[in-house]
Design goal:
The protein has 207 residues and is α+β, with helices and mostly antiparallel strands. The strands form two sheets. Strands 3-4-2-5 form a four-stranded antiparallel beta sheet, covered by helices on one side. It has a three-stranded antiparallel beta sheet with strand order 1-7-6, covered by helices on one side. Strand 3 and strand 4 form a beta hairpin. It is elongated. About 6% of the residues have low confidence.
Length: 207
């Protein structure tokens, strides 16, 4: 359509992550899958009992992760051993309570540590960044229209896209049993996530 202008504008904000996530895990292997499963179950139950002491809605959330027992095959196709893995995840906003769990959970070892924005924090930042991106879109549309010799613009169509990104969750080597026994509270630095809103649309330029 004549006198139509298509453009985009964006705004980005960095905000400190307010949720810490820690994944504990361990592996067992043996000739009998039932024994391997029993060992994993015992390790998980011991860790769960400790984690649940610190559980508090929104502050320390506890959930189980992967639990699997798989065969390891010989060249002739027969299983030689059975290998199993179990995971426990704790996450929330109480960094102090979460990091202290590292020293108290001894049947599992830390395998991953990560950070993210809570839904409330993300929605608050998105609202602020969206307002900034929209204001930039409108200002650019009016500036470009004047440059083309038009006096005003009317909005025809608009689309908002939001993206939040943070650092990847690192995987750590599982600690030995001796290290787990002596583990101190985990030192953490939450870092930041970026929240970006992109406004794309078209306006009708008018004389």
């Amino acid at each position: 359509m004549a006198n139509q202008l298509t453009l985009s504008a964006s705004s980005t904000a960095e905000v400190t992550n307010d949720v810490l996530s820690i994944v504990f895990s361990t592996q067992r292997e043996g000739a009998d899958p039932a024994v391997v499963q029993s060992q994993l179950t015992q390790a998980l139950n011991t860790a769960l009992a400790e984690a649940r002491k610190a559980a508090k809605p929104g502050q320390v959330e506890v959930s189980t992760g992967n639990f699997s027992v798989q065969p390891r095959y010989m060249p002739k196709g027969e299983p030689s051993k059975w290998q199993g893995t179990v995971e426990l995840r704790v996450e929330g906003k109480d960094f102090d309570a979460l990091t202290k769990l590292v020293g108290r959970i001894q049947s599992l070892s830390v395998s991953q540590v990560g950070y993210r924005l809570s839904r409330e924090a993300r929605e608050k930042v998105e609202a602020e960044v969206s307002a900034q991106a929209i204001a930039r879109f409108r200002a650019q549309a009016e500036t470009y229209a004047r440059a083309f010799g038009f006096g005003s613009v009317t909005l025809r169509a608009v689309e908002l896209n939001t993206n939040a990104s943070g650092p990847p969750m690192p995987r750590l080597r599982a600690a030995s049993a001796e290290m787990a026994m002596a583990a101190a509270p985990l030192p953490v630095a939450a870092g930041n996530s970026e929240v970006t809103v992109v406004v794309t649309g078209s306006v009708q330029m008018q004389k």
